[in-house]
Specification:
2 helices, mainly beta, 342 residues, disordered N terminus, 2 domains
């Protein structure tokens, strides 16, 4: 009996192998594609793997990092609601709060209507429109609990001419030509903090933005509210492949050595389709740093919408002690990254 079962199994294997051998290459490929794992409609998975060299890191000179953003979104056929979605992020190195490394963060949802979109949860939708300077590998030191990039629990309404990103990416934005202005209103109930902002395109030449963060009772007044202005644009229409930006931010920290506004300005120039170089100047951040930041990034197409990015950066900085006013000039710092983005 046992011998018969073994012979039967071998005969079946030989038969299947013969059938596979008789198929053409095109038929084999088609069969494999039909059996391949497919992602359901509306589900998206983005992220990156990174190897990073940084002598100033608190861990070691070379670190490996990974982040994954998983979500779902769909258009909805309804008289009131026309879109809905949700996303969450896993990050092995969460720069905004290192105590949350290797955890699931930025859990958020969104609902779209004819009047705009409402986001709620650990969202940073309040920053929409306020991202223009070329901050490649430039540290954004923020000591305030509420900031233009925080991910505190909040509700945010966006309205106007935003060309909405359906995958919850608020680092960049676009405005429609028909309505080249967009607004943002947000509220953090736990800290009773309100966010307001607006961005407008000036005939497509450049964009201007304003943002204010403050108590719900006086968000329209300057007082002690944080506020910022930015302007940025592109020179591509004149045949110069460059983007530029300037940002001024006042967090109302009136300490002896931190009373000046933070100032960022920078440019990014595309030497070729793959190679870009950047310069960024930072003055008066929350820890007293001033400095020049230079970068060169080479990006290649890895297929299927993925990208392989290799960058080298030079940081030339000095620091003013925010307690004593003493100045320290640090040695030039060279960083390097290799990222696989998907």
């Amino acid at each position: 009996m046992k011998k018969t079962m073994i012979l039967s199994a071998l005969f079946a294997l030989i038969t299947l192998n013969g059938a596979w051998a008789e198929q053409t290459l095109e038929q084999r490929v088609t069969a494999l594609e039909n059996d391949a794992l497919s992602i359901p409609s509306g589900v998206f998975l983005n992220g990156e793997f990174e190897m990073r060299y940084d002598p100033e890191t608190i861990d070691s000179d070379i670190d490996s990092r990974a982040e994954f953003i998983l979500g779902l979104e769909n258009e909805i056929d309804n008289e009131i609601i026309n879109w809905g979605g949700a996303s969450a992020r896993f990050d092995s190195y969460y720069a905004l709060d290192r105590t949350k490394d290797n955890t699931i963060v930025e859990k958020q949802m969104g609902i779209g209507t004819g009047l705009g979109r409402i986001y709620f949860g650990e969202t940073d939708a309040q920053r929409l429109g306020f991202a223009k300077t070329s901050k490649i590998s430039v540290p954004l030191i923020i000591t305030e609990s509420q900031s233009r990039i925080d991910h505190n629990e909040k509700v945010v309404l966006t309205f106007g001419g935003w060309d909405n990103n359906n995958e919850f990416d608020f680092d960049t934005y676009r405005l429609s030509r028909d309505l080249p202005i967009g607004g943002v209103i947000g509220y953090d109930a736990e800290s009773e903090t309100a966010y307001v902002g607006a961005t407008a395109s000036v005939m497509g030449y450049f964009d201007v933005s304003y943002m204010q963060i403050g108590n719900k009772d006086n968000v329209t007044k300057s007082g002690n509210n944080q506020q910022g202005y930015s302007i940025g644009g592109s020179t591509h229409r004149w045949g110069v492949p460059m983007i530029w930006g300037v940002e001024v931010w006042d967090d109302k920290n009136t300490g002896t050595y931190t009373k000046d506004n933070r100032l960022d300005y920078g440019v990014l120039y595309s030497v070729t389709d793959e190679l870009a170089v950047s310069y960024h100047r930072l003055e008066n951040d929350d820890l007293g740093f001033d400095g020049n930041h230079y970068g060169a990034v080479y990006t290649v197409d890895a297929g299927h919408g993925n990208k392989l990015e290799m960058g080298v950066y030079l940081h030339d900085r000095e620091q003013t002690n925010i307690g004593t006013g003493a100045k320290t000039v640090a040695d030039d710092n060279i960083l390097a990254t290799v990222k696989y983005k998907f």
